[in-house]
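Budget justification aside, the reviewers requested a transparent look at the raw inputs and outputs of the sequence design task funded under Objective 1. We therefore reproduce one unedited record. The lines immediately below are the structure tokens for a 769-residue chain.
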């Protein structure tokens, strides 16, 4: 027969009673969590965190200009990708190395001062828990085996700082919070402030580098033109002195004017060529991933692709912190990044080619104007060689002066712009410099204690329900009804028979007095030494009433007439069958009925010891035909109780119990006694109990409360059902009734009495079997 558990409604009160029952599990677990948290909080090295706030504005100007410097106004952040790029540059290794060199951290004692730095408690715990000490030993052995390449001594310090550096953009603003944790508050403050200053210097240097390159190129061009101008002026002076030239004729003036126009055109072509060449050189040396785009480069495709590339690069760097490079998402991001880089380089190459074409066109135009100028000079020379040549030299000198003035003006502007670095005109500003922190940010003792308390309570509660779930014992009538459908006949509480009296009042004294002594007439509780025959020796203690309650349940188990032959059995040994049979015999005898108690446990009999009779004769001799039934049954000292002991233990108990004579005896004793109570061995131990159960009117199954597990109980009931035995219910023996034992609270309240009237202050019952 398969037993299906019924669906049970959720009862919050039952959950609460489970918590009360196993409150020590919650208390122990919570105490352990709180204790270890306190130990960790007080032993951990305190960590201080210094922080500063930076304002990062959009870098809209590609080259410094005097107007920008003198009329500086903050720009609106139009592209968040530019802002994110600046934020990521804050955590670059080169910037950390610059800061470490500026502070000379290599000789600072906080970084070991050249010595090996010891590990903190947290680092040591991480190394042990993650088993890094195994790999670290291998790495140290391999490092000893092969020489290491020379590296910057500040590189290790920079990596250490970058790993702990925290950069937090403040949402909906252009502010960035830069913080660094360290056990040394002064060091943390110095690092944060120095890093912010170096970042500002870096941004200024980056912006002024392209301006300085343009200024250097213009300087070279002006120097060349000045050399040519000096030569032309000397030539003009010498020629005028030799020819004694004064004024030119009208015809000569028109030729000279044409010559002057060509000179001016040639000069403008030269200026255009210089500008084109400047742009071409600047684009050729441009690193589009790092350097800002020149102001003259207005190609929207390059700007869009560069924005997409910087966004994808930021996404790649952020994802790299969580995944390895072999992860599929990282591979996809890397491929997209490479494609954008190729597109960016391709568009930049187009811009360079366009600038080169423009430069070559300007150079070609300059050459063409030079040829036209030479032809015009030839015409002028043929008309008036001396005068025209003189004017030509004079115009050439004037044009070169004009060209030098134009380039000098541009050079002066770029030189002044390059020197604006000293003015610290940067798009990055320090809003709140870091101050030395006064309180550590780790460990947060109060927060840790609160979290430990919360985790301990929730974890302990979960552990409490886990222990309850893993407890597979049959706890009470609800369990029995749920897994087998059998009713409960009653409960025998655990009775302490050590004779130890306690002054502590029973926890279960919420019951009322019924038929007991009146208030003020109570006597001291009797000293109970054994559970056997307790209801005969102490008929007025509460446990005697429990046996009467079970007796009533048995009598009312049948609608027509109560069962006359009762078998008491259990699933396994040591569950209190013999003591229960003896006490139930007393309970039935107290009704004035003749009761026969049969000890059919032909392997380990106990009833003869309980009733104090002789073991000789008995059931085994009767079944073997050596004595009569009348001689086998013995009268006890208790009125109306007779006992049929086992006699000598036979070699074949199962065969004797399954004999026809045993069946005839059962029919015979029904005529001579009102109730026959039979003690049998455990069902799962031997087959004897199933043999005897098939001859009885009803079976009472005994469970050791809190000890009998579900599987043996279900298997035993299944065996009895297969033997067609009539199990009328379950008797719970040895129940320790305590506050919070929710399985028996509602059931047991109907027949409880005032333990503190008669009992010894303990609501327990020792095992009697």
């Amino acid at each position: 027969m398969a037993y299906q558990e019924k669906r049970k409604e959720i009862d919050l009160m039952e959950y609460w009673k489970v918590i009360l029952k196993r409150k020590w599990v919650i208390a122990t677990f919570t105490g352990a969590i709180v204790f270890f948290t306190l130990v960790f909080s007080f032993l951990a090295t305190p960590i201080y965190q210094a922080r500063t706030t930076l304002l990062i504005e959009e870098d809209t100007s590609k080259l410094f200009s005097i107007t920008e410097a003198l009329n500086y106004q903050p720009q609106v952040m139009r592209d968040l990708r530019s802002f994110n790029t600046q934020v990521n540059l804050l955590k670059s290794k080169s910037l950390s190395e610059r800061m470490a060199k500026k502070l000379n951290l290599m000789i600072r004692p906080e970084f070991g001062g050249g010595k090996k730095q010891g590990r903190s408690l947290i680092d040591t715990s991480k190394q042990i828990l993650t088993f890094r000490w195994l790999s670290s030993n291998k790495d140290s052995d391999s490092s000893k085996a092969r020489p290491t390449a020379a590296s910057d001594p500040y590189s290790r310090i920079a990596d250490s700082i970058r790993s702990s550096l925290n950069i937090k953009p403040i949402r909906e603003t252009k502010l960035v919070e830069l913080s660094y944790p360290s056990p040394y508050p002064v060091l943390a403050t110095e690092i944060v402030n120095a890093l912010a200053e170096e970042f500002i210097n870096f941004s200024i240097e980056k912006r002024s580098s392209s301006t300085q390159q343009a200024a250097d190129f213009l300087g070279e061009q002006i120097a060349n033109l000045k050399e040519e101008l000096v030569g032309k002026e000397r030539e003009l002076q010498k020629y005028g002195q030799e020819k004694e030239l004064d004024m030119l004729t009208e015809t000569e003036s028109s030729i000279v004017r044409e010559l002057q126009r060509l000179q001016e055109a040639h000069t403008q072509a030269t200026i255009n060529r210089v500008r084109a060449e400047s742009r071409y050189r600047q684009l050729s040396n441009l690193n589009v991933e790092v350097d800002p785009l020149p102001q003259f480069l207005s190609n929207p495709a390059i700007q869009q692709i560069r924005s997409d590339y910087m966004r994808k690069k930021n996404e790649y760097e952020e994802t790299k912190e969580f995944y390895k490079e072999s992860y599929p998402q990282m591979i996809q991001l890397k491929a997209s990044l490479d494609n954008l880089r190729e597109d960016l380089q391709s568009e930049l190459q187009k811009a360079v080619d366009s600038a080169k074409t423009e430069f070559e066109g300007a150079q070609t135009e300059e050459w063409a104007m030079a040829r036209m100028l030479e032809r015009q000079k030839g015409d002028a020379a043929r008309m008036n060689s001396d005068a025209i040549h003189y004017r030509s030299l004079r115009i050439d000198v004037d044009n070169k002066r004009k060209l030098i003035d134009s380039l000098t003006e541009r050079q002066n502007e770029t030189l002044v712009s390059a020197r604006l670095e000293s003015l610290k005109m940067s798009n990055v500003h320090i809003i709140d410099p870091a101050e030395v922190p006064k309180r550590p940010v780790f460990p947060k003792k109060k927060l840790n204690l609160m979290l430990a308390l919360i985790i301990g309570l929730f974890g302990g509660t979960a552990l409490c329900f886990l222990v309850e779930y893993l407890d597979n014992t049959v706890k009470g009538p609800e369990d029995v009804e749920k897994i087998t459908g059998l009713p409960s006949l009653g409960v025998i509480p655990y009775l302490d028979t050590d004779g130890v009296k306690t002054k502590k009042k029973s926890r279960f004294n919420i019951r009322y007095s019924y038929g007991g002594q009146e208030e003020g007439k109570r006597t001291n509780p009797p000293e109970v030494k054994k559970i056997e025959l307790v209801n005969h020796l102490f008929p007025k203690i509460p446990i005697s009433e429990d046996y009467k309650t079970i007796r009533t349940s048995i009598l009312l188990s049948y609608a027509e007439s109560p069962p006359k032959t009762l078998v008491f059995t259990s699933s396994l040994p040591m569950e209190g069958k013999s003591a229960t049979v003896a006490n139930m015999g007393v309970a039935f005898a107290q009704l004035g009925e003749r009761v026969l108690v049969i000890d059919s446990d032909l392997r380990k009999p106990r009833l003869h010891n309980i009733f104090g009779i002789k073991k000789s004769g008995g059931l085994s001799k009767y079944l073997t035909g050596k004595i009569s039934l009348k001689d086998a049954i013995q009268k006890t000292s208790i009125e109306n109780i007779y006992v049929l002991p086992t006699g000598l233990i036979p070699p074949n108990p199962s065969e004797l119990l399954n004999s026809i004579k045993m069946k005839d005896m059962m029919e015979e004793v029904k005529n001579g006694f009102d109730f026959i109570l039979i003690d049998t061995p455990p069902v799962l131990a031997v087959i004897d109990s199933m043999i005897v159960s098939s001859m009885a009117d009803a079976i009472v199954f005994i469970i050791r409360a809190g000890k009998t597990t579900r599987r043996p109980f279900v298997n035993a009931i299944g065996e009895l059902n297969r033997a067609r035995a009539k199990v009328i219910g379950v008797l719970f023996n040895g129940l320790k009734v305590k506050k919070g034992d929710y399985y028996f609270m509602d059931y047991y309240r109907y027949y409880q009495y005032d333990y503190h009237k008669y009992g010894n202050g303990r609501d327990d019952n020792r095992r009697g079997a």
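Residues 208-291+299-424 form one domain. Residues 47 and 442 are 5 Å apart (CA to CA). Computational costs for records of this kind are itemized in the attached budget.
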